Structures are given as structure tokens and as C-alpha cells.
Amino acid sequence: MKIGILTSGGDCPGLNAVIRGAVLTGDRHFEDEFVGYRDGWRGVIENDLVPIPRRRVRGIGRQGGTILGTSRANPFHDGQDGAAIVRRAMEAEEVDALIAIGGDGTLYTANRLFEAGIPVVGVPKTVDNDLDATDYTFGFHTAVEIATESLDRLRMTGDSHHRCMVAEVMGRSVGWIALHSGMAAGAHVICIPEFPLSLDEICAHVQSAWDRRRAPLVVVAEGFQPRDAPAGLMDYELDEFGRPRFGGIAQALAPLIEQRLGIESRATVLGHIQRGGEPTAYDRVLATRFGMAVMDLVHSRRYGRMVSLRGTDIVDVPLTEAIDNPKAVPASRWDEARALFG
Amino acid sequence: MKIGILTSGGDCPGLNAVIRGAVLTGDRHFEDEFVGYRDGWRGVIENDLVPIPRRRVRGIGRQGGTILGTSRANPFHDGQDGAAIVRRAMEAEEVDALIAIGGDGTLYTANRLFEAGIPVVGVPKTVDNDLDATDYTFGFHTAVEIATESLDRLRMTGDSHHRCMVAEVMGRSVGWIALHSGMAAGAHVICIPEFPLSLDEICAHVQSAWDRRRAPLVVVAEGFQPRDAPAGLMDYELDEFGRPRFGGIAQALAPLIEQRLGIESRATVLGHIQRGGEPTAYDRVLATRFGMAVMDLVHSRRYGRMVSLRGTDIVDVPLTEAIDNPKAVPASRWDEARALFG
Amino acid sequence: MKIGILTSGGDCPGLNAVIRGAVLTGDRHFEDEFVGYRDGWRGVIENDLVPIPRRRVRGIGRQGGTILGTSRANPFHDGQDGAAIVRRAMEAEEVDALIAIGGDGTLYTANRLFEAGIPVVGVPKTVDNDLDATDYTFGFHTAVEIATESLDRLRMTGDSHHRCMVAEVMGRSVGWIALHSGMAAGAHVICIPEFPLSLDEICAHVQSAWDRRRAPLVVVAEGFQPRDAPAGLMDYELDEFGRPRFGGIAQALAPLIEQRLGIESRATVLGHIQRGGEPTAYDRVLATRFGMAVMDLVHSRRYGRMVSLRGTDIVDVPLTEAIDNPKAVPASRWDEARALFG
Amino acid sequence: MKIGILTSGGDCPGLNAVIRGAVLTGDRHFEDEFVGYRDGWRGVIENDLVPIPRRRVRGIGRQGGTILGTSRANPFHDGQDGAAIVRRAMEAEEVDALIAIGGDGTLYTANRLFEAGIPVVGVPKTVDNDLDATDYTFGFHTAVEIATESLDRLRMTGDSHHRCMVAEVMGRSVGWIALHSGMAAGAHVICIPEFPLSLDEICAHVQSAWDRRRAPLVVVAEGFQPRDAPAGLMDYELDEFGRPRFGGIAQALAPLIEQRLGIESRATVLGHIQRGGEPTAYDRVLATRFGMAVMDLVHSRRYGRMVSLRGTDIVDVPLTEAIDNPKAVPASRWDEARALFG
Question: What is the reported pTM?
Fold first, then answer.
């Protein structure tokens, strides 16, 4: 078969390992031919693609990012007939099936295409771990490792200066990275969108750590807002130079903590370094297994489905599962984490 | 309650995070008092113990090794009445319950004690991942990360010198570390005890990589033996200086590959660096959760049981499960891995 | 002798290795006794100190931060008679000599004390590498490693998204960290305070990289300002929530680049993670050597001097040298670096 | 000009950064054309070369190993007229000048060619740091970082098991890597070829650490032999399977220490992982500067010379300096290091 691969949405450590796993499997066991669409759906829409011979995937399993590039393009954009666009593109290059690697948006698009009769399968990608359709996916643990390593460093400098360090990690709508990296680094309070603490609660935990002669470490997910945030606190509008009014929630929390408690506080926004790293071995193995397993879906014509991790097994589920079930931090995990606060 | 903790058997990254998780939970939520037995069962037998106040566990979650020390001592050694010994020791210090952190041997001992009426619970520890009673336990992924990082380095020097690099990783009876690190590093052949390849098969994969202008990377578990090993190949006896006759299976394979194929080959035995590292964030989180969960077992008097990871949940199972079910690499994972060989 | 040690100013990876080197040397070869003043000069002023027995320095050589704590306190603050304060404090505890570990401010204070007859020696500390009195000091190379690792990650995600990544590193008055980490990571333009580029020049380099299908990587020292910065660009005043108006120069540059060139740009401010890490081996060795060498100064009564690295040798120079000669990036190094831009 | 580059001898982190620095400089400032000889002098002898366009060096600065490959071939091998061979090869491809990147052997060969009238310049490479002609060269600090990281891990597992850990690092004739990594990791004894300790001395330091309740850490350079080694101890002959009789000096020392002191001891041979890593930022910067500076030698026709680091400056010296002056660990550095033993 001739198979088209695309990576779409935010990049994520492990994308290249998926591509490698799929291409090696197809090359060796099915004599498949692979093409890669550049920058996700944009490449499909504009018929911008490159062949992916086996030699091209040599050694990419450990590389971060994606060799195919990515974008947030979408064939259904502006009410266009995305299915027709994609079908035309596939026919033009005689592509028999598509492998779409991406998050809920990408998989939603893939499912619409599938419902329109296009042979497409999916590989779930979310650095935030917000897909309930799989226990974990590649990239999340790498991001947690990078965040934890940074938190360890912040704690050391915080201890030396007797400062409260406020660190902002990724997570617009879910707090998984904050929860895991915060637990790993022994944070004194973790702020996640699912269970918004109040400023009073945050300060109480900070004070309690301080009273035990600890330099308080506060980990906050970028999407967090304090339950009792003063009006305008989260005001992000740009100034005349196009600069954000401030760098993020961490930069809002640090001065508030300092004002309330009189404890010198510093903010750090980890930002893009969390998603750019080489994948950890855990993520390389998972991504490789996903890439290999998705080829079974293709060759058994189980279109409209995606690979998924359950326990230690790779299984497959309908693409719709990726869309219907966002995965927020459950109360049980939150209670577990908060039991260590302060 | 007054609770005794011990770490027994080979050390493993994450032991300290378990101790920290247990002590913080007991201290905050149950007003428990903790003592640590030095060097596993030896400390119990010799009544050698230290208090573990909350401040003692500060910041140990990221430390490798174990603050309590470990050994391979066993109260039932030489047919002694281990239960009586342990009971006496516990009574002498008014210890109400024991938390035994260790591998199958330790958990077997714990279960014998439980059957003799001693209030003991367990936390599974195996850097080799050979316990079927849990999906994973702490330490394994750290060892895989360290091994993979080393394999990445060996591959770079192998490529520059056009050499076949043979790397030996941990795994006396199971090949999990070899399987995961080998897949992560893109090894051309992985040798594990569960599915012993022959020298011919190994050489065939090495040659095939070589023919594609790759520097072959061979990952071998320490317990592997080629199916058709010449007599005496695995001969380990010590010489007059107490030196092992050779450093391990990798040092046996490398020259054989070089002799058969004429490809310059080098052996590296990763050894103890795999178990000594700081735990990864993954292992810190898992170990912390184990430490917290085992306190629920203690306080709900669910003795004779141990904590376990199933999917993303911490559950508990009888200690006997740890003993009855060693976890070897299954055929499905082996077929998956070998599909990428050569 | 009874020797007092203090660490003052911003923390820096390697401070603990200096303390360890000094204490081990004094303990073994001179039977010295050590006390540590808490939080730099504050501990001296308030007579807040702790004994540092040999066992206290065990294993601290690899720890970041400082076990003694640090602050920006200064005995001459508010025109006080700092010499009298320090002399009284030393007499009260029968401290024979002081080892002051710090940057130009600390060493300036140490020199004033020396001129007033106080037996004090110095160890230069500057994560920014802005002291001409020594080739390098500990902490700088660690900060460069951490920054470079982050830049490598930013480059990977930049490549995947075809974005211009703007990364801000430490360096208020000098650009050494930006220069070294930028060269190491292969940045397309490096912005340092010593040779302020204009926005036009920055954009020209970004465009030139873009035209060669590279994701532009811009490294900027926190103290940099474009030669032709529009009025108000660097406006840092706080808003009503005590938030800085923006997070730093990187957050000012990114939108300007995006506006001018139409290339999507993202800013990352590395911040405190650069100074909090475990020291690299290079810095551990240098710091240990400094700690050992400063004991020779003490026991040979060469007060008023500090240790220094020249080539591969540890030498000593007057404290005044640390004050009189800030070390900016020279034109030769700037020309060398810029030759790789664009 | 048309310039040929070759990398010869053992690989070393930073080789690719040298190539990148040279090619970018030549491409931008001199419109040079570059060719790379494959596998060092072998490529010259067999006229096996590849063009190195600018795009080929993209992103290689952080890659370990060498994109050109390396070997120990030598044009003067077997008394051949190496100069004639090289001249012919250069003329055949109209190569105007050679850049030889390698250790003392390579630079010796380069000098013989220069004396025969061939336009060649050199870049010193030695992971062992055994060239007196330069303060340091790239690769050494990377190897020290990797070794130190491993030693940190060995110390953690040693502490948990109360074992003496014996670690063998690179260094056949000089002990620089052992000296630096041992000091960085806080080893209790360091064994280097320049100042051979006796088994008694080694055991005395091990015992002294043990008596202070430390797990002794012994770092030994591969070329070390105890002053009083029993006859046959260092016997390396191969057995009938082509296996070395033992894995190295560490595997000889560990059992001897265990026999003499009754302290359980374990050996680890770090081996090739020390040379295969990605270069540290320090080595990337130094290698890049060397690559840029060597182009000045070429274009100013200062043939027969090589680049060198003195303090923080890149200078140039005659190739002969690399040959005449091996750099052993001097007594001053040895005394400094041993002052921390035991």
C-alpha cells in the first residue's frame, strides 16, 4: 500500500519515533510505500508531501519535534468540504490510507474524514495527557521529566535565598503535568485548573512550608486561575508593542504571595522547553509501539480507529473516543497529591 | 501506630521516595511514629534501627539508593524461627506493623511472617521488572533511561569507527531492561534469556545492519546465553587473583561476532550505573504513590498484602501474588521487538 | 585556627564544593575549626552562625545552592562602621579569619574590611563571568550547560512549528552566558549588552536564517536593549497587582520580530533554572580547587587576596582586582560569535 | 580555496563542531569549497571523499562522533612514501590544503607531510587531555562529565549496599579523566599511571573511608598498575574464545581489595560510553572556535601549525609541539588531589 503520514497540532516528543515505527514495520513486513505530508493537514490541502524511504527514518527515534513539520491547519476550515479536499489529494498521489498523528482536534478531523469514507487511522498525541482514550501517550512523561528537572533546580536556588519559587508548567485545561512534576519535585502546593484553590489556600500552604523553614515551591498549570482571583488579575491583553501584559499566571501569583505573606517570591515560566526535548526511553518505546500497531490497523482495514495504551498493552479504540472523553485530573488523584501539600 | 520500615535486596531508584511517601502520610494523617530497620532484615534480626522523624525524609524523594541501607539477610536463614525473631524484635520496640520494601525474596519472607501472624505489608521492588503482580514498579524505568542514554552514546562512537557495539544491561532471568532500552535506542538485535537466539541468528542481524552501512548495536541481558553456545563459553570461574575469567556475556559475544563476521566489535558492560541513579519523575511519582497507598493497607489492617500498579491505579494484592508469578517477557512483546531487528 | 565562612550575593552552582574543599583541607592538614555564617554578611552582623564539622560537608560537593544560605546584606549598609561590626562578631566567637565567597560587591566589602585590618580572604563567585580577575569561576559553565540544553530543546520545537524562538538567558550587564550558550546551540543571532544590535540587524539575521529554511533561534541576554529601541519598550513598571508589565526583553523582542517579518515568534525566559542546578564536573573541580587554595592564603596570612584561575593554574590576586576590573565580552569574542550569525 | 578535512584516531565529542566551525567560516568569509576524507587518512590514501556543502553541517555541532568517520590508517604505514600518496590524492581532486583533526599520531603524520611541502594545518584532539600544546581540547570535559555522572550513581548504590565501588575510566598513559572525575565525585582514592600507588596505599585509603562509615569509591585510570602488582596480575591474554582474561584493571583491583580488607567490592568499567556522548556546551564552544581559527591558519598560509587554547584565547603553535610534549598529570595536581583521599 501507499500510506500517507501527517503530524498535526502542537509538537510532542515521540512523533518521530511513531513515524519510524510505522515506516520500518510497513517497509519490512508489507512492502508499503510511505509519503509524509508537510505541516499536518496543510500538506494534504496543498498536496505538499515528501517520500519517506526507510533510510529517512534512520536514527530519528530519539529526535524531538517532527521531521514532517506541523501546523494547526484543518481541511474543514471555513466550512470547506474537507473530505473532498482530502480525497482529491489522496487520489492525486494514489495514497491508499492516511495515518493522522495528533491531538483531539486532529483526531476529530480524522473521524469526520472517516465518516465521509476516507481510509484513515489515528495515533493519539497529547503532551498534556488530556485524552481519556488512552492511559498515557508519548510526550507527556518527557514533559514531566523536563519540568521536574527544572523544579529540582528552582528548589535549590529557592533554599539558598529563602525565597518562594513559583513555577508555571504546561496545561491549559488540565493539570496533569503540574500534578506529576509537582509530586516528583515535592512541591508544597500544586495549582491545577480542575480544582482551583483560592489565594488564601495557596498562601496557607506556602506559609506552612515557610514555618517549617522550607523554601516554598509552588507549581502552577498555565490554565489555573485562583478561585477568588481579583477582577482583572488574569488580564492578558497586549500593550502597544504587542507584548503580553504579563508572562503568565506564575507572574501574577508570585507578587501576590509576596504581598500577602512578606515572603520574597520569584516566578519562572518553563514554557516551550517542556515540549522540545528528546523523548525519554519510556516515550520512545511507547511511540515506537504505537507506530508499529497503527500499521496493523491499516492492513486489517480497521479504519476510523486509533491505537491506545491500556495497562501495558497496545489496543485500539474508535477515533470518537478521543473526542468524547477529555481526561481531567480525577478527585482521587487530586486528594492524593494535596495530602502532601504545605 | 509505631511502624517499622525496611528496604531489602538490591537497591533500586525510588526506595527513598517510598519511605518519604509513607512517613509524610503517616505523620500528617495518622500521627504515626516511624522507625527504620538498618540494612533490611539484618536490622530486624539485630534490632538495629533508627527513628524516622518527618524532617529526616526532607528532599530524599529524588535521591537514589536507600537511606536505610539494604542487605540480603533473611530471618529464616539456616532454618531459624524467623517469625519468633521478628516478633521479639517488634515487641522489644513496640513496633505495631512492618512495611517491607523489596523483591520476590523479601516479599516471600514477608508472607511467611504474615502467615505466622505478624502484621506486615509489602511494597514491590524490582529494577528488572520481573514481578507479574504489578504492571511496573519504581526503578525499572530509571534503569531503562540510564541504559538507553548509554546505548545512544555507544551508537555514536560505533558509527564513527564502523564497529559493532555489544552492550550488556541488567537482567539475570528476564530481559525487560534489554527489551525496552534496545527498542528505545534502535538496537539491531536484542538478546534476552526468555527467547535465546543462536550465534548464527545474532550474526545474521549484525550482518544485515552492516550491509545497510549501519554500525550494528547489540543489546544483551546479562543472563542471556546463546542457544548454541560452545561448551565453556559461559565459564565464569575465578582465577588465582579472584578475578572473574571474563566480564560478562557481552565480552564473550563481541569477539565471537568479530571472528565470525570480521566486523570489529567492542563490548561494554553497563553494570551498577543502571541501578544507582536518581529516580526519574515517573519513578518518583510511582514510588511516592506506593508509599502513600501502603499506609492505607496498614491502617485498614489489610496485612499480608502489597501495593500494585494496574493501568494508572494503585491497587493492592496478596503478597503471595508476588511470589507465584514471575513476569517474563511474553512472546507478543518479543515478536514486536524482533520485528525491528537487523 | 578557627575560620568563618560565608556565601554572599546570588547563589551559584559550586558554592558548596568550595566550602567542602576548604573544610576538608583545613580539617586534615591544619586541624582548623570551621563555622559558617548564615546568609552571608547577615549572619556576621547578627552573629548567626553554625559549626561546620567535617561530616557536615559530606557529599555536598555535587549540591547546587549553598548550605549556608545567602543574602545581599552588607555590614557597611547605611554608613555603619562595618569593620567594627565584623571585628566584634569575630572576637565574640574567637574567629581568627574570614573566607568570603561572593561576587564583586562581596569582594569589595571584604577588601574594605581587610583595609581596616580584618583578616579576610576571598573566593570569586559570578555566574555571569563578569570578573576579569579570573579566567573563569565556578557556576558559569553550569549555567551555560543548562541554557544550552534548553536552547537545544527550543530549536527542536521551533523547527517543527517553523517558528522564531527567542530565548532570554542571564546577563544583566555582560553577555557571556548568551555568547557561550548561543554559540553552543548554533543560534542565528545573539544579543548582548556590550554590543547592542539594532532591531533591523536582529531582523536581518532572523530573515536570513528563515530564507535558508531554518527556524531562527535568537538568544538574548536579559540586560540587552536594542540600539534603536522605541521609547517605552523596556518599560518594566509594575501594574496594580504588582506584576511586571512584561516578563523581559525576550517577550518584547518576539512580538516585534513577528510584526516586522511576519514570522511567528515565541519568547522563553529561562530565568532561575540557570543558577539552581547541580554543578557540572568542571565547576565541581574548579570550586574544590578554589576551596583548597584559599586555605593556603589563610595559613600563609596572605589576607586581602583571593584565589583566581589563570589557564589551568590556581593563583592568587589582590581583592582589589575583583573590583577594579569588570569583564565584558571583548570585541574579538564578539566578532568571532557574530561571524556565525544568520 | 578547496579544502580537505579529515578526522583521525579515536573519536571524540566535538569533532563535528570543529568541522561545522571550519565550513561555516570558509563558506561565508572566503567562499571556500570543502571536501571530507572518509575515515581519516584511509580516505586520503584511497581517494575516498565527499563534498561538505554548508547545509551538510547544519545542526551537527551538538552531535557526538564524526560525520566523516575515522580510522587509525596512516599514509606512511609500512615505510610507504606518505607525502607522495597524499600529494597525488590532493592533486587528483585539486585540494589546496588539508585540515587534519586528530591526536599526537595524526599530528605527527601531518607534520611529516608539512615538512615534505604539503599545505596542512592541524586541530588537536585528545579525549585523554595528554597534549601539552594546548591547555585543553574538546572532548575531555565531556568525558569527565559522563564519568562523573556515572561515579555519582555508583556512589549511591555503594552507600546503600555498604560496598567499595571500583570504577575504571579512560586513560591509558595519563590520568587526567580519573583525576578530574574523581575529584568531582569525591572519590576516596584515585589511581593514575603517573603516580602509581601500591595496593597497600590503595587499601589504606579504602579502609580509612570505611572507618568513617563511607562506602569507598575508587577511581582508576585504565592504564594504572599498582606499584607492587603481583606477577601476572595485569595479564591480558585472550582465551580460546578470544575473550580477554578479564575486563580491566578495575576487575583486578576489586577482588584484591575485598580479599585484603573483607569489604565487599564491585568493579565497573565505564568504557566507550565516555567518548560517545554529545559534546558539552564547553566542548561545543571550544571546538567551534578551533574550527573557525584553523581557517585563519589556512588563509594566512601558516601551514605546519595547529590551533591551541591558552587561558581563554585561541592561539596557534607548530605541529611539532603536539608531538614533543605529552602532558602527564604534574606533581602539583597529584598532591592537590591526594590531599582529599581516604
Answer: 0.96
